[in-house]
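// run 5 | inverse folding | seed 20
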């Protein structure tokens, strides 16, 4: 008698999108109104900032497009407002909407670059300090303690001022963004390094790390393949929150005059320039960049707060 084996089609594995929509993180996000509001605002700000060449009426970085005869125009809803200057113009005839969109793009790029560089430095030094310990750990952590004893903004001001003086005069404006990224990185990497170091010290004593050592696995592979993935949860939360802090630090440095130049205005530069005319009647020059900066930082903080709660197992 012939046995017939019924062949069944193996179940299809759900796609990554389907698995993501079934995850606890997505459920937490959809049930957190503040996270949804923050994500919508941040997405809108990022999309409009990087679409500035397509939607902005003017390129504020191009002096040929500035119209001095249209300077100090009020917003469009005011009596003397003119189209297409929806948010008015500044004292140089620069369209405020265009300046805000281009300035937001600079602030976001500097914030992202500084967080990525801070992560790279902090993760590397934290892994090395926590895994090897002893002299290397003491040296790196004492350097970190010295940096933590100084206010972050003072470190950024010192690094930015020294770096700008070391550059030739013709390169100071061109290299302003790189100097700001370096200044913010040197003042922010310590937090990542201390967090990763603490997690690495815990993980290096576990059995799977001891087994990898017995198998003569290289230290670099153990740190990157085994220990690092188990330290990413608190680092992800810290990076999200520090993104907003990096934008604020850049705005502060630019407001103090040691950040982005007036020819390439970021949000901090626009606020500094507008602050000079705060009591002269052209309030829109300073108000709208402040509102944009506040929306950007608040939306990032809303997402960071949600992510911190969602990834905390004690709150589940």
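// decoded
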């Amino acid at each position: 008698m012939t046995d017939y084996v019924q062949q069944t089609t193996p179940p299809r594995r759900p796609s990554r999108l389907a698995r993501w929509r079934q995850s606890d993180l997505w459920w937490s996000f959809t049930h957190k109104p503040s996270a949804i509001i923050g994500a919508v605002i941040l997405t809108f700000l990022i999309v409009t900032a990087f679409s500035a060449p397509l939607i902005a009426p003017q390129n504020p970085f191009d002096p040929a497009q500035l119209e001095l005869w249209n300077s100090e125009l009020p917003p469009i809803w005011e009596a003397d407002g003119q189209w297409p200057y929806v948010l008015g113009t500044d004292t140089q005839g620069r369209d405020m909407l265009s300046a805000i969109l281009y300035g937001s793009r600079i602030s976001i790029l500097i914030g992202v670059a500084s967080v990525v560089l801070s992560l790279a430095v902090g993760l590397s030094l934290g892994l090395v300090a926590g895994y090897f310990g002893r002299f290397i750990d003491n040296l790196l952590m004492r350097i970190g303690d010295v940096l933590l004893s100084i206010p972050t903004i003072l470190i950024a001001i010192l690094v930015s001022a020294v770096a700008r003086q070391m550059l030739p005069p013709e390169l100071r404006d061109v290299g302003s963004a790189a100097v700001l990224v370096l200044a913010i990185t040197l003042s922010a990497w310590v937090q990542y390094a201390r967090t990763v170091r603490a997690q690495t010290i815990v993980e290096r004593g576990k059995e799977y790390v001891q087994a990898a050592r017995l198998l003569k696995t290289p230290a670099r592979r153990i740190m990157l393949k085994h220990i690092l993935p188990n330290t990413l949860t608190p680092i992800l939360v810290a990076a999200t929150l520090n993104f907003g802090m990096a934008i604020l630090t850049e705005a502060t440095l630019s407001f103090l005059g040691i950040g982005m130049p007036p020819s390439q205005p970021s949000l901090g530069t626009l606020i500094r320039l507008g602050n000079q005319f705060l009591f002269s009647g052209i309030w829109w020059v300073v108000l709208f960049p402040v509102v944009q900066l506040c929306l950007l930082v608040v939306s990032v903080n809303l997402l960071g707060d949600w992510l911190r709660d969602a990834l905390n197992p004690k709150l589940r």
